[in-house]
Amino acid sequence: MLELWEVLRQFFWRYRKRSSSRKSTNIAVRAAAMADGSKGKSTKEQKYDRQLRLWGDHGQDALENAHVCVINATATGTELLKNLVLPGIGAFTIVDGHKASGEDVGNNFFLSIDSIGKSRAQAATELLQELNSDVSGNFVEETPDKLLDNDPEFFHRFSLVIGVQLEESTCLRLGAVLWNAGVPFLACRTYGLVGYMRLAVREHTVIESHPDNALEDLRLDQPFAELKNHVQSYNLDNMEKKHHSHTPWIIIVAKYLEKWYNEHNFQLPKNYKEKESFRELIRNGILQNENGVPEDEENFEEAIKNVNTALNPTKISRLVQEIFDGEECKNITSQTPAFWIMARAVKEFVESEGGGNLPVRGTIPDMIADSEKFINLQNVYREKAMQDALLVAKHVESLLQSVGKPPESITEPDIKLFCKNAAFLRVVHCRSLADEYSVESLNKDEITSCMDSPDCEMVLYLMLRSIDRFHQQHSRYPGVYNYQVEEDIGKLKLCVNSLLQEYGLNVNVKDDYIHEFCRYGASEPHTVASFLGGCAAQEAIKIITHQFVPFNNTFIYNAMSQTSATFQL
Amino acid sequence: MADGEEPEKKRRRIEELAEKMAVDSGHGDSTGDWDGRWNHVRKFLERSGPFTHPDFEPSTESLQFLLETCKILVIGAGGLGCELLKNLALSGFRNIHVVDMDTIDVSNLNRQFLFRAKDVGRPKADVAADFVNSRIPGCSVVPHFKKIQDFDETFYKQFHIIVCGLDSIVARRWMNGMLMSLLSFDDGVLDPSSIIPLIDGGTEGFKGNARVILPGMTACIDCTLELYPPQINFPMCTIASMPRLPEHCIEYVRILLWPKEEPFGDGTALDGDNPEHIQWVFHKAQERASEFSITGVTYRLTQGVVKRIIPAVASTNAVIAAACAMEVFKIASSAYIPLNNYLVFNDVDGLYTYTFEAERKENCPACSQIAQDLRFPPSAKLQEVLEYLTENASLQMKSPAITATLEGKNKTLYLQTVASIEQRTRPNLSKTLKELGLVDGQELAVADVTTPQTVLFKLRFTT
């Protein structure tokens, strides 16, 4: 046996050395690989390879079918567009009525010295288009206000509208139009060293939220019949060493849990002490050699290590329960989107066949085991997941029938995907901008409690609102020219106070922040714009692909301290 | 927009300006600037503020310093590097060097925005520098199509600040070690003028981090080695005899079958960029998988495992590079107190950042100036010392070469990187420390790819 490992190890080292001494890759080979797309993967697949590993081909399809509108091609606008054009968004349209100024070119990579005096929308579209020929770039040389005056329905056609550096009144008008049309709206703003984003989407559903550290769905506390039978097929007390030490830890825990139940009135080990003695129980099961010394059984070590998470009771998370309890789940009509029909079907499954549990996910983590034992166990979970999904599909079918829709309007793969992700479903409801800005419905509690720490990012939100107030009153932003800074500090302070007073906010905004915002003088430093552009593009991709979870609803970035916060306003 | 100038007047002024520039072939004045060019930057350099660094003095000279004097080195011209060059150039930095040993691959194009399909195969550093220099007038990015190890301290010494956008931990550690070696001490007191700040960024999928390292003063790369996730290697017995996952089948073909069958001729190494190679591995892995009833071997997965591909998107790189460039600007201008000292970013679920102060490790092998103790019994074999150097979480060396002074002579006890010396010194691995003639308190000098310096250890015999 040992010899075999030695041989393998040598192979291993031999290969490793070769690969590490490899010369930098042959350029000709790479170029050839690129030209010959038929071998292996298409050029497009190669180009997008690194992102397809994150959102899959279906995510990419969604992206390629999307059309986003970006208002104002300032640095923030072109940076976020760059991050959407590169991964291959279907189309973008820039709406911008400005001519590019010297100042605009100074902080914007997608304007050049030749753009000065020309339409900012056109110049930026041309330079952004260069990034990716798969993307269709369009521009409208018009201010958003003009479009809102003359043709507000212009904005209805987009998958998402992103407003950049908008004046408050424009932002609210546009926000109202999009809210009523059900078009997601993302407002972005760079103001000095502060970044701001606001998402306004009525309802956003996510099946694939891709959680980072998801708990496994093993049902050890409530084993289903097939799992019980499978565990029964093992007899740890009467096993050859080779098999004993290659029994998957899930089986080991299930076996010792049966023992534990018999001694503990069918109660799971709950607290630390009980879990410790359960671990001890497993430890005692490790085979011993003829001298009574425990053998090296890594699978048992794994079992002991996994006791804590394996014994987590199977339950439905609060977020998923909220989805089941939602209005959309209750009243199914012919207009109900597929997400909610499937959510209702899963809910019905939980209440009937599932016995209070979600459909089994059908995956298990890798663990020490020989191939056969692992695959057999994996198949027990997989088959159960398939059966559960089939039952959910039956519920879907009768729901569709009840509202007069054909059964094929929701496909089997869709249902399987939904069931597999049932524990991670997410629904994001944002508040409207109108609610945020109304004196009656402003989220005062959130603001007041955050402002208990006077340097919380909330103060930057209040400052941005005050800046807008200043602009309303003076038709300019404070401190744009050096000579204005000193005198504008007092004026801006009046705006802060009137804002706090109008909303009845009993909080203190430090004078330092008022001075700092006058210092900013409405500047849009490139690095802050680029940071925000990265964040905004990622949120746009979430909205478009319905994968990962968008923020809700206000994000503030403080570049001075490199901190950020998200508020629900 | 905000400057209150009447539109008509403004347009005329711009037209005049454009005309002037046409005459001067694109350069408004000696610095290639045009009216308003640095307005966004100047507000932070020429105005006082409540949150500035205590040393900050508003001045028009600061911009001249950035434009004319300040010299920045960017390591890596990939996802982060492209963004960094753009960010720095638009923040007023003009003297920038960039080092990258790679050529452009088609899979870079989804995020490395300075490259086009026609550039595939060309050196990243050259293409990136050309692009930035042509887009941003007056900017002078100097490219180096080289490895960082090709340069010595005289090269690195010339820079005010160094920014790293790398995907390799070994390269980061080497760079970190280089900056440590540049520090000078007067009676054990660090000479601040010998410090070159290092800004380091890293990304993986939707996660990233940015950090500021003041060598000799704040936590360095090696102080926080444990923060990097360990590389996942499947146990050999799993790969060889009990595969469970599709990945195990692919690794079987890559590690065992390829060298045995040599499908593309004697000694041809598996090239992850060669589609025929990947195709071969893919088919063989499928065969192996079906033998064990394993499902899920795909071409994409095969390539991912063979090349150890890390997923990457434009947006995360943009965020992290922007945070890094912001810190370069803060340090170069003193306009703000720099990040102290570590930022973590994740936008899988909402947008999450976490900023904290990573702490220096008292006995950090890279930055502490304290000779490390190696505690072994005299009966321990050299092999055990070697394993300790590679496996210890705070050392994680790759191919350490161990030398000692014995009877007044430098003697190489083990060296892996040169085949002939490896062969000659390999027998030492199975000898005990005592047999090798090492004594208690013996100094061992260890060289490794993770640092340009030799790390000194003191052997302490345990009983």
From TrEMBL, chain B:
SUPFAM superfamilies: Activating enzymes of the ubiquitin-like proteins (SSF69572). It is an enzyme of class 6 (ligase). The lineage of its organism: Eukaryota, Metazoa, Chordata, Craniata, Vertebrata. InterPro entries: E2-binding (IPR014929), ThiF/MoeB/HesA (IPR045886), ThiF_NAD_FAD-bd (IPR000594), Ub_act_enz_dom_a_sf (IPR023318), Uba3_N (IPR030468), Ubiquitin-activating_enz (IPR035985), UBQ-activ_enz_E1_Cys_AS (IPR033127). GO terms for cellular component: cytoplasm; nucleus. It catalyses: ATP + [NEDD8 protein] + [E1 NEDD8-activating enzyme]-L-cysteine = AMP + diphosphate + [E1 NEDD8-activating enzyme]-S-[NEDD8 protein]-yl-L-cysteine. The keyword ATP-binding applies. The active site is at C237 (glycyl thioester intermediate). Pathway: Protein modification; protein neddylation. PANTHER family: NEDD8-ACTIVATING ENZYME E1 CATALYTIC SUBUNIT, UBIQUITIN-ACTIVATING ENZYME E1. Keywords: ATP-binding, Ligase, Nucleotide-binding, Ubl conjugation pathway. This is NEDD8-activating enzyme E1 catalytic subunit. Residues 374-462 form the E2 binding domain. GO terms for molecular function: ATP binding; NEDD8 activating enzyme activity. GO terms for biological process: protein neddylation. Belongs to the ubiquitin-activating E1 family. UBA3 subfamily. Its EC number is 6.2.1.64. The keyword Ligase applies. Coiled coil: none annotated. It holds the Pfam family ThiF.
